Amino acid sequence: MAISIKTSDQIQAMREAGKLAAEVLQMIEPFVVPGVTTDELDRRCNEYIVNKQQAIPANVGYRNFPKTICSSVNHVVCHGIPGSKVLMKGDIINIDVTVIKNGYHGDTSRMYFVGEPSILARRLVEVTFKAMWVGIHAVRPGGNLRDVGRAIQTFAESHRFSVVREYCGHGIGTVYHEDPQVLHYDDSKTNIPLVPGMMFTVEPMINAGARHVKLLPDGWTVVTKDKSLSAQWEHTIAVTETGFEVMTLLDRDLGMLQAA
User: Fold this and answer.
1) pLDDT at 246
2) 91 belongs to a structural domain
3) Mean pLDDT over the full length of the chain
4) Is 113 in contact with 125 (CB distance < 8 Å)?
5) CATH code for the domain of 200
C-alpha cells in the first residue's frame, strides 16, 4: 500500500482547498428548504465554486459523474445525483462536495434538516455527527488506523444504529481517492500505523436500520436495502506531530473540536 506523506507546503495547500469546500457547505445552507430541487442546489454550488472561488468542482466528470455535489436524501446512503427531486418538510439530506484548488482536493460533507425532522431522523443525524468526531479523535501519531473504525462502530452500535461497510473514507491530496482506505468499522486489514503527514477523510455512513445497501441502476446512487434513513458527515484530516488537524473546518466551527 503506497500511502502519500504530505510535506508542510502540501498540507498548506490542502488547508486552502479544504476551507473552500467548507465554505460551499456554509453558502448553500440557507437554500436547503422545502420546495427546492437538488438540481437547484447543485447549480448554486457549481456557480459558487467556479465564479466566486475560482476553483474546480472535482465531481464533475469524475468517473462520468454528471454533477457538482452528491445530494443524498433520506434513505439514500451516498452518491445521490442531483436532479428534479423536490425537498419536502421533514427530509434529511447530505450534501457532499469536493473542490480542487491549485491541484489539491478539499473534500467534505454534512447533513441538513429540511424543516423539522422526525425524532428518529434528528437522533440519527446527531449520532452520526458524533460518530465522525469519535473517529477523528482517535487519530494520533503512533496510533493505528484501525482505531478510527473501531471507535466509530462501537459508538454507532451503542446507539442501536448500523455502520455501512461497502463505502469508506480515503487518502486524498493531488489525487482525489488514494490509499489508505478508511473503514468505519473494526477490521484487521486496517492495521496501519498513523504517522505525521498522512491525510485522509473520515466519513461514516450510519443507517437507522440494517447496514445493508444496494446500488441503483444509475451506477452511482446507493440506498439502504430496507429503505431506512441514512446519514453521513465528512471531514478531511491530517495526522500531525501531536494529534490531528481538520482541513475542512471553518473558523466559526473550531469549538466543535472541544465539544465533540
Assistant:
1) 97
2) yes
3) 96
4) yes
5) 3.90.230.10
Tell me the C-alpha distance between 63 and 59, whole Å: 8
Enter the pTM of the model. 0.95
Q: Which three cell numbers stand for residue 80?
A: 445521490
Cell (9 digits) for 165: 461497510
Please give the pLDDT value at position 2. Answer: 87
Domain limits for position 246: 8-259
Q: Is 30 buried (19+), middle (13-18) or exposed (0-12) by CB count in 10 A?
A: exposed
Residue 136 belongs to a domain: yes
Q: Residue 260: what pLDDT? A: 47
Does 1 map to a domain? no
When computed from its CA atoms, the radius of gyration of the chain, rounded to whole angstroms, is 17
Cell numbers linked to 52:
466566486
226: cell is 430496507
Burial class (CB in 10 A: 0-12, 13-18, 19+), 242: exposed
Q: Give the total number of structural domains in the chain.
A: 1
Per-residue DSSP letter, 79: -
Strand pairing partners for 108? 97
pLDDT at 39 over 70: yes
